[in-house]
Amino acid sequence: MRFAACSATLALCWLPVALAYSHHYGSSAFKTEDIIVRDVAIIGGGSSGTHAAISLKDKGKSIVVVEKKARLGGHTETYTDPSTGIPVDYGVVFFHNNTIVKNYFNRFEVPLVNSSNGDLRSGDFDFRTGNPVNITRPSPEALGAAFVKYIAFLSQYPALDSGLFLSTPVPDDLLLPFGEFVAKYGIGDVVQTFFTTNQGIGDILTLPVIEVMRVNGLSLTLQGASNSLVTTARHNTSELYGKAQNELLSADSLLLSSEVKSSSRTATGVELVVKTPSGKKLIRAKKLLITIPPRLEFLHPFHLDHRERAVFTKLINFGYYTSIIKDTGIPDDVMVWNYAQDTPYNLPQLPGIYLIGPNGIPGMKNVYYSSQRSNATFPIPDSNVKADIVTTIKRLQAANPGQFNKTDPEFVVYSSHAPFYLGASPEDTKKGIYAEMYALQGLRNTYWSGAAWRAQDSSMLWKFNEEVVLPQVLAGL
Ligand SMILES: Cc1cc2nc3c(=O)[nH]c(=O)nc-3n(C[C@H](O)[C@H](O)[C@H](O)COP(=O)(O)OP(=O)(O)OC[C@H]3O[C@@H](n4cnc5c(N)ncnc54)[C@H](O)[C@@H]3O)c2cc1C
To answer: Are residues 328 and 193 in the same domain?
Structure first.
């Protein structure tokens, strides 16, 4: 029956394949004003896509960015409280204090400042029960000593500061579960710090070392250890994306609320049929740069090659969720951390909340939540995440009547960042998945950037763009 159904609609069954290999979409189907001819088409206008667009534009190349949402910024999200006018970043906040970052923010006249938090009151609770826990944190000296050892280890792999350039055979240490690795090198004192600075990667102790090192690499570890990280002085990272958006729109280089519906990628160039709010457009570009998470269901319109499909199928995902909540019953100046008395390094059980922290707006808190590792693109339904957050806050209130008031917490904003962290299993890493992934660069004039290719770290993505991806895109343009 199934075979018969497919035969009856043979033309439809094969349409995507035919489109993939057809050389050109007929121009006659598009009015002249709906045909966009550019050097580079960029898919996704988040951190890596926006940076690549501005960098290529500054180098004199013509570009067009196709962004699904009505704004640039991706995981960068800022809420501005209507009554106080206070902006709060509840997405990307911190950047490395380096030349690439400073030049980029300077270009848009967005000032940066050191990111140190100042003094906050904080408390540790087991969010499963609501009860306070007594956490042993390493002394500054012990933490410093562990950092020194970790930095010495990282220094053996300088190529990993630019990308996932793993020599073969992949060193066994990089494949170890991070928990075994810290025990082997006597650096368990870094675990709590990495767990909090590298959120959204689930159970850090079972994750292969290479996946932790992607974010907690040499640059971030040195910056963190020396308190050098920076943030925007006006606590509004979206300002950079707003300015980039205006610039790209006025240069006819941005299609917002738009998505590629079909494509042809060949050795001579790419063609994209894009659905936009003002109708279908045909983009003809010499090269294509894809920066969206490489999940098969998102890449369907690009008619993947078997080599691309083989790599992306293996990537594993985490969900990361953020929100601003009012009426938590927790005093404005108090940060509440989720820890456990009975687990290694007191790490909390996930899925769950990492922390409930002050955000500068009276009566409101930022809340950060993560799933465990999953093969699903969207590991937990948003309704479950929201329900769990509210139940957890109420549990904290009930268990600590002297400290927290009984209230009905309400979401001011909620954002799912799933799929968040895409990484590989140690088995696939050992078999060379990252070498296979990087070998895709340039195949059918398609180049790749974004967190899955480097790290959930904007500063490192901009470095990856500048040093690894864009030189390849620019070659021959
Ligand atoms: C809550 C949170 C806090 C973080 N804090 C920091 C931090 O302080 N510092 C830091 O360096 N990093 C931080 N990160 C990591 C951050 O994700 C990376 O820095 C960076 O944003 C990743 O960039 P990207 O380009 O890969 O993805 P994104 O920035 O998410 O960009 C991807 C873009 O592609 C678009 N898109 C998706 N599908 C399509 C499609 N089919 N067609 C067109 N467009 C599409 C999306 O809408 C999005 O705009 C944080 C992440 C989260 C979620």
So the answer is: yes
Q: Collect all residues with Cβ–Cβ distance below 8 Å to 328 and sequence separation of at least 6.
A: 356, 365, 393, 404, 407, 409
- pLDDT tens by residue, 374-386: 888 899 999 999 9
List the residue whose alpha carbon is closest to atom 36 of ligand 1. 44
Does any domain span residue 300?
yes
Smallest Cα–Cα separation from 455: which of 153, 172, 96, 144?
Answer: 96
**pLDDT at position 26:** 64
- Say if residue 432 is in the same domain as residue 401: no
Contact partners, residue 27, CB within 8 Å, separation at least 6: 35, 282
Residue 388 has pLDDT above 60, yes or no: yes
Domain that includes residue 300, residue range: 20-73+235-314+424-474
164 token code pair: 């996932």
For residue 72, which atom of ligand 1 is closest to its CA? 49
Centre of ligand 1 to C-alpha 46, Å, is 5
Give the count of domains, the chain. 2
Confidence class for position 117, pLDDT limits 50, 70, 90:
low
Identify the residue whose C-alpha is closest to ligand 1 atom 13: 92
Task: Please write the tens of the pLDDT for every residue from 169-208.
Answer: 999 999 999 999 999 999 999 999 999 888 888 899 999 9
Nearest-atom number in ligand 1 for the CA of 292 is: 34
Interatomic CA distance for residues 357 and 368, integer angstroms: 9
Give the model's confidence band at 14: pLDDT under 50 very low, under 70 low, under 90 confident, else very high: very low
Atom of ligand 1 nearest to the CA of 49: 25
Q: Whose alpha carbon is nearest atom 30 of ligand 1?
A: 74
